[in-house]
## 1
Amino acid sequence: MRFANLHLFIFLDFFEKKKLVSLYNKFLAMAETSKFDLLSTINYPADLRKLKPEQLELLCKELRQYLIEVLAENPGHFGSSLGCVELTVALHYVLNTPYDKIVWDVGHQAYGHKVLTGRRERFKTLRKFGGISGFPNPQESEYDAFIAGHASNSISAALGMAIASQLKNERRKVAAVIGDGSMTGGLAFEGLNNVASRPNDLLIILNDNHMAIDCAVGGMSQYLVNITTSQTYNTIRYNLYNFFRKHGVIKEGGKGRILRFNNSMKALLTNQHNVFEGFNIRYFGPVDGHDVDGLIRVLNDIKDMKGPKLLHVLTKKGKGYEPAENNATIWHAPGKFNKETGERIIVRSKDAPQLYQDVFGHTLVELAKQNDRIVGITPAMPTGCSMIFLMKEMPHRAFDVGIAEGHAVTFSAGLAKEGLLPFCNIYSSFMQRAYDNIIHDAAIQNLDMVLCLDRAGLVGEDGATHQGAFDLAYLRCIPQITIASPLNEIDLRNLMYTASQPGKGVFAIRYPKGQGELKDWERPFELLPVGKGRKLKDGKNVAVVSIGPIGNIAKKAIEKAKASDVDAAHYDMIYLKPLDEELLHEIGRNYQRVITVENGAIQGGLGTAVMEFMSVNRYFPTITRIGIPDRFIPHGSIPELYTVCGMDVESITEVLIS
């Protein structure tokens, strides 16, 4: 707080200071309100629908500025929501939400939606522990029609909702907003294929910004470019339309006639069949996604049409904030930044340890230089998982397949079947979408391929849809698969090197989000024998059995417990499958208390595996399992979530000394 005369403020008594502070805070609140004259009057979409059409452009400007100001201080997904401000306002203006339903896909498009649906003040708590989620969540608001942490589920979910409304004789309208590369996902095409299977009035809005996190790739992306940029079409369309209207071939006023005429002309002039109409879905567009008046006119034209329809909307990711417009990849989720200058506020010190993802990326390049069989695969996350390093060094040996996790695994299996060695990098929670592909296409054939599970364990602010809680459990039951997790960056390098050796089969390596432990991780490669762990410390009272980087927290707890005369042994298993049975026999023979520690679901993971081993081999120690409990963990910082789950140093220490 700034005062003209700080000396005077210092000598004021306590109550006078409180009054001054209160007055100052009221002044700030008034200043805030004056910056957002229209937005401050919108608590719910019903308020929005009271505005005159000519007021909406100003509202969009204020909403965009509000997003910029809040996200500069409270980091989140930035560019996507800026790009669909006008679309968000238009949808809530035309549709009777929450009775009518909007399904957002991907969910980080929906920040403007959150602000307009009763969460404007709480928006400053975005992604904070106890605050609002960064994704639509029906438990948070009735305006959030369906959960949307991943991508490509909107068409299927919205179709189900639309048909349910028909079966219940409701007049509810349902819209699916699919964007940010989500149309490349296989589930989106399964939904499209089913849309015309029975009568429904679903509205699909394709928010096309030619981006996912990185630039969108693949045939669908190029197709969308082609149907929006035909010079012949764009130069002739207007004159031809006026000619036909003048001669009475088409008339104004019919619902959607202009748009349908334009579509027919496009097909005629470009000699191009519309893929969406091939699914028996009426296609409208493309239209300018930043013209709120135009969007409202189009939505009003088509909202009451019978049958499924798709509106193709062109937007720019990061619209209205020049740094984000110029570099959409970085500004997808930029962290804190100076809203005036666009300078990103990098919290991580240059001297800090590398991110695990960067260790993976640099090591992959190093291995690829030694082994020409190695290739890299990622489903639309080259920057997020650091596959970008291989793409820059060896672009012909790195493949971004778009948002299509199942395809990424099966494509990798095809590469492996023909003698290449794919490193397929997918976030742990996203890999759940490829579960059958892992079993059917990779493990059954015992193919040599490496599954790199980035963001394994608790990931923090992205919340329940993104926590990498389940991979240890869901992979452990699959035959012919190796599952490993490194204690630190050196182990990550060595596990990647070990996995690159011939005859290893499907080899899964899981590692967490964020920084590692070591600065000097670039060391010569060493093999880590499959199925062999190691004893990090001997002890008398209790055995701690851990896997992965969470073992470093267990180390600190073991050290802290010494003050309470607890002398704990520590075993780092490295491999969950196959387990090091020699180590487990040693533990079973020598310890009556065993504590397992893992950054994964307690049900079915390391702790469960140790319990099964002890039971089968007739050892009967008391076993305490520490890990992610049997519930979905909400968003918050990783240290906060460790505390919630009893995985922090203090909680583990308490278990040790109890």
## 2
Amino acid sequence: MDTRYIFVTGGVASSPGTEIVAASIARLLLAHGFGVDVVRCDPCINPDAASLSTAERGECYVTADGHETTLEMGHYERIAGLKASRANVITTGSIFQSVIDHVQRGDYRGKTVLLTPHVTDEIKHRITSLAQGGKRDFVVCEMCGTVGDIDMLPFLEAARQMRWELGDRCMTVHVTHVGQKQATADPEAKPTLHSVNLLRQAGLWPDALVLRSQQGVSPGHRARMAAMAGVSPEAVIDCAYASTPYEVPMTLHAQRLDSLILEYTHTPPRVAPDMERWATVLAQMLDAQRELKIGIVGRDANARNAYRSVEEALRVACAAHGCKPRLARIDSERLNDATVEQAFGGLDGIVVTQDEGQSGFEGCVSALKWCREHDVPTLATGQGMQCMVVELARNVLGLTEANSTQMEAQTLYPVVDLMEAQKTYAFTSILRLGAYACHLQADTRVAQAYGRLDIEERHRHRYELNTDFRGSCEAAGMRCVGENPETRLIEAVEMTGKRWYVGTAFCPELSSTVLNRHPLFLDFVAALANGFG
């Protein structure tokens, strides 16, 4: 079957949820038995998210092949269940860089290089390459930003050209925010209609409208908007903002958007869509009554989306145990031995997820000291595991000056350090980026949680547990339970005699999805929900 392309555009306001809608469409098409891939077209000039501010764009999400991208790609993995790669993210910066590389190699044979056709051809090539020669039945393409923004023009023009070239194999789903009139409480239709006109000016037209609102839009108002926008009434979808983004696939399915896509693109149905597992997980989340109070410690606690993947991994894991998390963000830069008890009072468990960097490191060490001494279930990921080892060395081994060489280059006890092979690289290099293999020791808490001994998890860090101190740590009760089979670098540690005290060099939250909840988070939540394990 020839590959179909679904373009998801946004209008009226920034972030109306285009990524959630696009991921939900992919989820539904997968449930119909089709081969699906996704691509996110981001108008930022940055080639990736490595240099983006956490406060501005949220967490840096890492794909399995080591690409640093924005948190929205996490929605695609969690909702659609697809394993993303660098091919699934297109930024203006990466497109321009590619075109410039072509110029410098002489690929254009001296021609004048312009936005059209050279930049738009590169965009189209990136999008269509995901079809893998027809192996994918659908490619869902999210056009980030808001229609009318100058940044969006190259992507919209590429979509226009594809629609002209491929006809009914392309479809546009336009997602808009619908406000409410103060005087009458009726939906405000005019902004959506203006965004539709802007879309038409770019040479596209909506085949379906997805209306995001706080209060919902009545059938009568949807029919009126359909008539004014030139869209069939059944293709106007009421998708009010919900308590969880995981309701969106069911909302779109209930209003037959997936069936409309098949009808519009002349795609014969393959199998009846199976959303039973999804509905079960969603019901678990919505019906949960018991609360678990969980603290998330990190230096970017005040940034709204700094730890989105951790939060979502906890939500779906709690749902499996009939619970819902009450999450407390705790700024590691404000923590010390004197303030940690007040900050952690009443919490059932702690997740320490410090990003690579110096600020907040000592606060995480104080947090982990309190958790270990008070036997509070604790999961430390990424640099959080480094803090866990430093805390043990200082307060159990008696190496009071132990530290990471990132914090103190000349420390007497470098329990966290660069390995010799790493020291030849530039300091700014992040050498462990993406998925790496890990072999677990049998009869350990971590191995029991995974249910297997060989795993693969994603990393985003440079410094490692210094293997010269491995014997001392294990003698003090901290078992090194996971290591990379090739480099022998330590991947996971756990403390014996504790309810649940585990550290990982990798970031397990990046592998957690709605239908495949991460085993470490499931086991961690089980320790909170069931008491002593």
